[in-house]
Write a structure and sequence with these properties.
This protein has 135 residues and is an alpha+beta fold. The chain contains two helices and ten strands; from the N terminus they run E-E-E-E-E-E-E-E-E-E-H-H. Helix 1 runs antiparallel to helix 2. It is globular.
């Protein structure tokens, strides 16, 4: 179909998804974006958030903690630092993500503090969006 694009989501552990999609909503570090067929090529970094993929069979949602998304006219490839199906995220998973963000703030150099705090803020917003505790 001309109005679909290939979608691939991989993390260091495994390939999580690979299918034809009609739209991919990406939590980009510079703001959310939606990629569709024939999109101009772009490479963006990801912020912690929900990646939403629309396809003929419905919408699939994945939680990502960072990484990159490459968008071309034919597809979207997401290489995530960590990714999991939104429905599978537990409070224990969120606690680990929150702890990792807090540790990154503690270990960040003075120059990197602002970026680390931004990630920590994005993680707290993600927890709230998932209805999980951020404490």
């Amino acid at each position: 179909m001309a109005d679909t694009l290939n979608f691939d989501l991989v993390s260091p552990e495994r390939s999580l998804a690979s299918f034809e999609a009609t739209a991919v909503q990406i939590p980009g570090s510079e703001g959310d974006m939606t990629a569709m067929a024939n999109h101009e090529p772009v490479l963006t970094t990801l912020r912690p958030g929900v990646l939403s993929v629309s396809a003929a069979g419905g919408v699939s949602e994945y939680v990502v903690t960072g990484g990159f998304a490459e968008v071309t006219a034919q597809g979207v490839t997401v290489i995530a630092e960590r990714a999991m199906a939104k429905a599978d995220v537990t409070q224990e998973d969120m606690d680990g993500i929150i702890a990792g963000a807090a540790e990154a703030v503690e270990k960040a150099s003075e120059e990197a503090q602002e970026a680390a705090r931004k990630v920590q803020s994005d993680v707290a917003a993600l927890a709230a969006a998932l209805g999980l505790n951020a404490a």
